[in-house]
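Exercise (ungraded).
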Amino acid sequence: MVGVALGIAAIAATLAMAAGCVLPERARVVWVGILTAASATAGGVAGIAVLAGSARFTANYPDLLPLGGIRIEFDALSAIFTVAAALVAVPASIYGIGYGLHGPSSRPVQVAYPLLVWSLMMVPAAGNVTGLVVLWELMAISSLILVLAEHQHNPEARTAAQWYAVVTHLSLLAIVVALLILAHGAGGESFAAMRSGAGRLGPGVTSVVFLLALLGFGAKAGVVPVHVWLPRAHPEAPSHVSALMSGAMVKLGIYGVVRVGWDLLGGGPGWWGAVVLIVGLASAMFGILHALLASDLKRLLAYSTTENVGLIFIGIGAAGLFASTGNRPLAAVALAAALLHVINHAAFKGLLFLGAGSIHSATGTRDLDSLGGLARRMPVTAATFAVGALAIAALPPLNGFVSEWLLLQSLVHSLPSKAVAVAVAMPVAVAVVALVGGLVAATFVKAFGTAFLAMPRSVEAEQAHESPRTMQIGLVALAGMCVALALAPTVLAEPLRRATVAVAGLSSGRPIHTNGVYLQLSGIQAGLSPLLLATGLGVMMVVALAVVRRRRVHHTVRDIPAWGCGRTLQTARMEYTATSFAEPLQRVFDDVLHPEIDVDVDHRTESRHYIEAIRYRRQTRDAFEQRLYLPLLGVVRRAGDAARRVQNGSIHRYLTFSLITLIVVLIAAR
Amino acid sequence: MSLTGTAVALLQVVLTIAAAPFLVGVMRLIRARLEGRVGPPIVQPWRDLRKLLGKDRMVSDNTGWVFSIAPLVLLASATLVAGIVPFLSTKSALDQVGDLFAVVYLLLLGTVFLSLAGLDAGTAFGGMGSSRAMTITAIAEPTVLVAIFALSVSTGSSNLGSIVAATLAHPATAASPESLLAFAALAVVTIAETGRIPVDNPNTHLELTMIHEAMVLEYSGPDLALIELAAHLRLVVFLGLLSNLFVPWGIATTAQPLQLLGAAVAVAVKIVVLAAVIAIVEVFMAKVRLFRVPELLAASFVLAFLAVTASFFLA
């Protein structure tokens, strides 16, 4: 069953690529969308089958590639990530039909897209080093092509792709080195051999492998300080690709860390968990602060991805820390929280990126400061984006709340503990999660409020229309997923148990219990029923509405202009913008963010006391980019300049170099 | 979800809704008397609500569905919380439905919708109020969650019923350092979240200082009635949480009518005492500048953090 589904996924993806290659433009977009959606559905079915209890699927193709061939090992942990990828890919592919008909429809884009979707689903299924590296690279290259999709009229896309290409390949290097050391020490490059042989490596070597893997996979996950490519590359890709990159691709970095650190290596000392936890805390804070100040909608979403990956890392790090102190059941709860957030984040971040894409294709801008009033013009986009915004802000009764609640439960119940590290780290972690939660709410009130509510701030926003039907289907499907995941997380209790059991270094029993509607945790006296919370809210709203309706004698609704404090003219220029909405919080976090603020005042020529125009610009630069990467690039450039002195193009000089080399080689070889 | 539990939850909801406007009336009366005024009768908030409910609905022509459903969501979230928080009995049916974290995030849901509604009309005041409300809420969040952390360490659960039951079983914990510190931290947050002096002034309509009133400026008639009622209800919920989490005595541990009656009287007395303290302090205090509010909240965060560390190091 699993094998058949994976086979169908591969065939459908191949057909989609062929369709992208040979068909004429309109048909190409339609068929690529349909076939990719089919491929993703098949992949999702395979994942769901494993999560529902089918035996894990293994296959071996030793002749497919030189070196080690390709092994497939598809267990419950892989399945979680494959399902997360499929969850975004199916709606994104359907959305891509409507999106591609008015946007990126060139051959390279339409061929790279199915390849990206398929490799996203298959990376977690790889069961040996060669397979993982090949699939990983397919994913990196296809996504790189897609980032470049709009490079002709968007120079930003080119620099973004440069950053992305460099970071992704350096990260690949780290991953390959880590896995080779591990494979060499363990005496085999299949995951099974590595798992059983990892004990032969010394503790020092294991830690080196772990840190290299954390660096390499962390770069793909977009955590601080190796996140710099993410807020550049994700916004520049076409929106359904951004949804895939943020919803699914970054998750594979998380998969890598869990798989290598706590499955293949079988877990390690407590400081591994502490390092992951600290990286997570830093990423969550850094990501949300930048998202808060961003006024480019897609950039905001990209930074929020760094924040969400930070939350997932907090869960994984906490799990590692708990496991090392011997509290396995709590470690399983933390890991389950992280894995549930992987799926939830795929649903709502995919939804939000698709929503941003609809806005972009309707108005031609991603700048929140020139949007507004779209709720009336694009009702479906507005309603679905609202669902995504409420979900990402972890508000009940939506799905983000469930995983955040699980995460908080696992952090809070770590005390009382004998370990001082836990006692110090956990209050800090809870505080960061809480502050991040509050700032996310502010960020998405800003994003939804300025994009969809009030009056339009530009002509483009005023003339916006709802997007084509296929794009709406994609949006509604993902919004439906968010609601379904919110109301019935109890269904995921058993799959999450299977996935946590698959992680050798963290597994223990059953993290989440359920008796139908209630979620309960093992060893923790706490309960939650998202379904009943939603029902309660619904009932209260209906009762309140009924009371208002009954009391109203006249039943009239009068449309009146908004209160302008005596002014009769209300224009969009008087509204709060995204920039002004975030201003109080920007002041609060001034010392952390150091935003650059320019105020230009133009005076009238007749007198300095009369002002013609005031321009206000605020820019927040990435501190890591400024302090870490640009100096590093400067060093590389200076080294290149120095090397140029040796290379002056003179043939005589090169002949001399050859002669000297020859002599050195002869002496050395003697 | 037992039948008696459901009855207790419903009773809590009905009683808190009935009592909330009276509490506001009492606070206004205390302030008035201390300021040398006669003051309105304590039923005045109820009369205001009745008057508002009878009026036409006036809706700004810029607004959409968010503006229309925000009062409903705000009131629904507050009433749901009133059913979850153990006011009368630890046996509320909603106790297992949501814990303290759920309560906090439900209240945040109301704030978020009100902030969105503030932006919807497209006026400068609405945006100003929304932006400020979200700022204060975001910064208050760490204090709340870390204080909950401190409370749940000693009892081993974040469920309200369990925390209250644990304090009843071990009365000494109510006077422990972590409990007192957490109380102080949550008290500051209560002031901030319910929009009282020194963070916000519920009576002001002075343009540049208001937060809550700026957000609801566009509302009138029945919608305003819902928002006012929700604001009253949130005040009761916060004060009820503060009193019953830290001083739970009097609360019923069963669902017997006589015990429930006693519990209602006990919680009413506790809430009125807290409200009176707030009202008296408000008379002698001025509102602080908006950008000093984060400092206040940071101080409350330090208290909450100390509460958690105390629970570890003094255990």
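Further reading is listed at the end of the chapter. For now, observe: The first helix of chain A runs from residue 2 to 22. The mean pLDDT of chain A is 90.
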